[in-house]
Amino acid sequence: MPTHEQSPAMVARVAALLRALGASEPTGISTTELGKVTGLARPTAHRLLTSLAAEGLVDRDARTGRWSLGPELYLLGAAAGNRYDITDRARDIVDDLARVTGESAFLSARRGDETVCILSQEGSFPLRSHVLHEGKRFPLGVASAGLAILSHLPTRDVDDYFARVNLESEWGEIHSEASIRERIESTRVTGYAVNPALIVEGSWGMGAAVFDRNGRPDWALSLTGVETRFRPARHAELGTLLLEYAHTLSNRLKTHAVI
């Protein structure tokens, strides 16, 4: 039986597995791949997955052996959606943002030190960036949505974030603390964040934070596309639109409390 000290570590391992499974949808992921992604030994990952499968929280394809999220999580998610899901209130805004700009539009939610894309709409322009999609997670400060959210957090929260994460080790020198802090300052000046193809060459993104009724930046609207569609001369136009739509959604959420 786990000791009191071991229990938090066990919960963290299970949470890491479930997040990795979510990121692998809809194709699923093997036990070995899960171990690499989560930093768990393969036997440990397999033992936890087997226990989760017994509870219906994960499922395994008998033919391929790949794991995916289980049916019990759907039921739990449906119940939690009544408290946390804002997609119904944001769908028309995301759709309109894509229609007006021609770019792919997204809504991302903050979850701890990450953002996860929860809603998307493709634009009319035929060339698209495929960096972001529903279910995709990025650390705060990496993609434009996470940069917009991080930039609007209190300075103490930003300092605490950099004290516990090292983005440079995984995302390269361009994501060093100093580099991200420079982008934070720029975002605070304009109000919107710009990702100048820092994740995938030629794929640009811009984002604006969406606030809850207490003024917390818990979501972000963003646009992605190819570099030729995000020339500097167009930044002000796209940034202004993002801020306007983000403001509209923030005001909408103030009248419908979301926890």
UniProtKB/TrEMBL annotation:
Any GO BP: negative regulation of DNA-templated transcription
Q: Does the keyword DNA-binding apply?
A: yes
Query: Entry's PANTHER family?
Result: HELIX-TURN-HELIX TRANSCRIPTIONAL REGULATOR, ICLR FAMILY, TRANSCRIPTIONAL REGULATORY PROTEIN
Keywords, in A-Z order: DNA-binding, Transcription, Transcription regulation
A Pfam family that the UniProt record links to this protein: HTH_IclR
The name this protein goes by in its record: IclR family transcriptional regulator
Keyword DNA-binding among UniProt keywords: yes
Q: Give the domain of life.
A: Bacteria
UniProt xrefs under SUPFAM superfamilies: GAF domain-like, Winged helix' DNA-binding domain
Source organism: Rhodococcus erythropolis (Arthrobacter picolinophilus)
